[in-house]
Amino acid sequence: MGKVLSLEFSNKYIKMLDGSRSGNSLTVNKSILLEVEKGCIDDGKVIDIDSVINTVNEAISKNNIKARNAIFTIHTNSTVTRNIELPVLKSKSDTMSMIKSELSQLMPVDLNQYKLIYKKTESVNADGVEKGKYIVYGLPTYMFEQYMLLAEKLKLELIAFELAFNTLDKIYDKKLFINNNPLKSGVVSAFLDIGYDSLTFSVVNNGKNDFSRTSQNGIKDIVKNFGAVHYLSDEEALKEIEKISLMPDDISEISKLNIVEENINIWIDELSRYIRYYNSVNKEKQIEKIYLYGIYSNIKGLPEYIESHINIETVLITSLSNTVFRDKDNESITTYFTTALSLHMDKKDVNFLTDAKKQRKSTFSRRVALLGVSTAAVLAFALAAYTYYIEKTALEKDIAVYDAFINNEDNIKLNSEAIALKKKTELMEKYMGEVTKLQTAIKNEDAVNIIIFEQLSAAIPLGTKINSMSADIDTIKLQCSSATRQETAQFEKNLKEIEFIDNVYIPAIVDGTEGSSSNYSYTVVCDLKDVISYEAE
Q1: Beta 520-528 vs 501-505: how paired, if at all?
Q2: What DSSP string describes 129-172?
């Protein structure tokens, strides 16, 4: 593999690595962190493509980067994600057709507006039928086309285009070590990417990233609060935050430390919700370790602080095996972790560019076929004219040439492909019957109630209890008690973020204070939406 330029796009930064790979060994020649002008990229959408092009081209020119092959990875919440279980088919195209058919029943969106990819995370055997557990990702087509145009204007040959967190699969695929240790088989590990305006939580199980969620938190909230209290610019606030230590034995200014801890506690609450949900639906495989990475993950004492609050081993990623940074002044695998992992992507890896490559190949094949047909027509016309002027022997010779063209191996191959497509169509009609059966089975399952109880349970803060609950088709009423008013407010906020809840209100709160302990009793009324998605959040 020659030199490749990897670019990872987020709202505030573009991470750029100029590297090359030999086997599983990666050499990074240049590592560059580019700050994007505010508003140029918003949740993965390219708002000002000219500004982004100028920023990247200036860095390429300044650093004398010659690589023309490129890999793009992005951070966005605009994707749709579904976990589904379907029969295993041999053909990838047949599998995608079955997935599209299934999704059209589950999702109230136009699938033609999305680029879809899938990966199989597990195989199971049910009643003698092999089934696969699939994760399907849908990226808006307009966003895909934005990055195709961006690559074209940058004069880069794009070889892969993927969501940043999906590069975590390469750790296990390439047998890479983190902090000199492998990901142990059977051990479920979580990864937390701490960015400027987002936190991305992912879980790697059996070598596959099978769960990812992004929250709109990040270091930005700490920066804004810090600047407001101490009258600092964002840059000055970031420099002050870098000096803060969460280690118990270190001395930090109390007022500054309180701001940092207050916001990190919000991160921990969000993190705890994700962990509780994942562990509740994967009871046999619990999260045992958390890895921190990202530009703002190196707050001193942060791993120890998180571990002390959620009781799960937490470490900062400081090294990745077989990875060498020649640019020692800017060496940081912590910052460029997923950017470096993307350089391990192969041509066989499924990503959002896979289908586009097939279309280009198909277009080339059609052009070859059209050329063959056109050539045949020209030869036929020439043959007819020629027979008018030449003798019978010359005519027989030309017919032999025409015969050779008809029996050409390339033309025979095209005919064989047409027959194979017909057989695939017949096979799909057979599997459509299986899809119909699966749809009937799904409709008969009591999945909605399970989803409701799981997501309500995941929304409960640590100090809050549900004493009783009643529900009908439109409303859920909860009799609750909380130790503090803050927990009551947090519970209300968490409930509002649940997909199937339309509105949440609390008629009254009763203060049951006794002695030195506090207890607040209240009723929570949740109005339900008309439609509840079958996806497990």
Answers
A1: antiparallel
A2: EEEEEEEEEEEEHHHHHHHHHHHHHTT-EEEEEEEGGGGGHHHH
CA-wise closest residue to 101 among 81, 123, 86: 86
Query: Whose structure tokens read 């799909």?
Result: 428
pLDDT at 25 over 70: yes
Q: Residue 28 burial by CB count (10 A; 0-12/13-18/19+): exposed, middle or buried? A: buried
Residues β-bridged to residue 178? 181, 320
**Does the pLDDT at position 4 exceed 90?**
yes
CB contact at 8 A, 506 and 492 = yes
Q: Is residue 229 a contact partner of residue 282, using CB atoms and an 8 Å limit?
A: no
- Comparing CA positions, the residue from 176, 321, 273, 173 lying closest to residue 491 is 273
Amino acid at 281: V
Give pTM, 2 decimals.
Answer: 0.68
Please name the helix (run of DSSP H) or strand (run of DSSP E) that holds residue 38, with its range, or none. none
CA distances (Å), origin 349, targets 41, 83, 88, 149, 315: 27, 20, 19, 22, 29
Q: Is 85 helix (H, G, I), strand (E, B) or coil?
A: strand
Residue 517 is classified by DSSP as B
Residues 6+ apart with CB under 8 A from 227: 233, 234, 236, 237
Question: Residue 291 and residue 296: Cα distance in Å, rounded?
Answer: 13
- pLDDT score of 206 more than 50: yes
Are 345 and 351 in contact, with CB atoms under 8 Å apart? yes
Structural contact between residues 193 and 294, judged by C-beta atoms closer than 8 angstroms: yes
Q: Pick the closest to residue 263 from 317, 214, 304, 299 (CA basis).
A: 299
- Tell me, letter by letter, the H, E, C secondary structure of 429-479: HHHHHHHHHHHHHHHHCCHHHHHHHHHHHHHCCCCEEEEEEEECCCEEEEE
362 CB contacts (<8 Å, ≥6 apart)? none
pLDDT tens digits, residue range 126-183?
778 888 889 999 999 999 999 999 999 999 999 999 999 999 999 998 999 999 999 8
Whether the CB-CB separation of 285 and 188 falls below 8 Å is answered with: yes
Region 334-348 average pLDDT: 90
In DSSP terms, 292 is beta-bridged to: 192, 316
Q: Check: CB of residue 15 under 8 Å from CB of residue 8.
A: yes
Task: Please name the amino acid found at residue 42.
Answer: D
- Are 113 and 141 contacting, i.e. CB atoms less than 8 angstroms apart? yes
Find out whether 32 and 336 touch, Cβ atoms under 8 Å. no
Domains of the chain: 356-444 (no CATH), 447-528 (3.30.1360.100)
Strands 114-126 and 129-140 turn out to be antiparallel
Residue 193: C-alpha distances to residues 200, 267, 484 (Å): 5, 12, 31
